[in-house]
Design brief:
Shape: elongated
Oligomer: single chain
Distance between the termini: 179 Å
CATH architecture of the domain at 128-209: 2-Layer Sandwich
CATH superfamily of the domain at 128-209: TonB
Structural class: alpha+beta
Mean pLDDT: 79
Number of strands: 7
CATH topology of the domain at 128-209: TolA/TonB C-terminal domain
Largest sheet: 5 strands, mixed
Radius of gyration: 70 Å
Number of helices: 3
Length: 212
């Protein structure tokens, strides 16, 4: 069996403390050289400038709204003494005070009715009316279906223009009266005349209803 022994110069454990000491000295020397060789550094403090806002306070005068006043009323007229002799000095203005205890005034009388023109009978005029437009009355359908015939006697008031103002039924079947009155109002006449003036006059008229 062969026993090997280490060279004491190669054994690192024996030289550990010395190697560590040398490394620390070398490191400090390098740092010292670097520190001395570096240029000096000057730090300038940074000051931030803040712009200040200036607020001005002004006094605003109080405003007043100007109201336009209405124009003044006209001045009342002032009586001026006159030197005319024909004006009496005793003339005064009557009192215009209202007395509520006085009875109200009576109402004014109604207007007088307009004068009515006379109405003549057929035989009283010098020129009787003449029919210028005849109207055939419409035959009632109910009378036609029932086969009823008849006559309606009427009395017509013809005015100065030859138109019928009023219709009076004298006699006749009830079923024909409405048709007779309607036809009578559509008749036209040449006006009657009395003393060369057109007048109102009553005229007799018969309406005949007969089935064909």
């Amino acid at each position: 069996m062969i026993i090997r022994r280490k060279n004491p110069e190669v054994d690192l454990k024996l030289k550990y403390n010395k190697v560590l000491e040398n490394c620390l000295i070398l490191s400090l020397a390098i740092l010292l050289v670097l520190f001395l060789s570096s240029s000096s550094m000057e730090l300038t403090p940074y000051a931030k400038t803040v712009q200040q806002e200036i607020i001005k306070v002004e006094d605003i005068p109080e405003t007043h709204q100007v109201k336009k006043l209405p124009p003044p009323p006209p001045r009342p007229s002032v009586p001026i003494e006159t030197e005319r002799e024909d004006v009496s000095e005793e003339v005064t203005i009557e009192s215009t005070e209202l007395d509520l205890d006085e009875p109200p005034l009576p109402p004014p009388p109604p207007p007088a009715p307009p004068p009515t023109e006379p109405v003549f009978e057929f035989y009283q005029v010098s020129e009787p009316p003449v029919t210028i437009r005849e109207v055939i009355p419409e035959y009632p359908e109910i009378a036609r279906k029932a086969g009823i015939e008849g006559k309606v006697f009427t009395k017509l008031l013809v005015n100065q223009q030859g138109r019928v103002d009023s219709v009076a039924v004298l006699k006749g079947p009830e079923v024909f009266i409405d048709a007779a009155v309607k036809a009578a109002t559509q008749l036209r006449f040449k006006p009657a005349r009395q003393n060369d003036k057109p007048v109102r006059v009553w005229v007799s008229q018969v309406f005949v209803f007969r089935l064909k």
